[in-house]
Amino acid sequence: MYKLLALDLDGTLLNSGLRLSDANAEAVRAAMERGIQVVLATARFYGIALRTATRLETQTPLICSNGALVKCPTDGAELLHLRLDHGLAREVTTLGDDRGWEMFTTIGDTTYMQMRPGIIPERLPGGLKIAERQSDHMDEGQPTCVLVFGEEGVNEIADRFLLAYEGRAGFSINRPTNSPHYVILTHPEADKARALEIVLKDLGVAPEETLAMGDSESDIGMFRLAGLGIAMRNSPDEVLREALHVAPSNDEDGVAWAVRKFLL
Question: Tell me, which fold does domain 86-186 have in CATH?
Answer without folding.
Answer: 3.30.1240
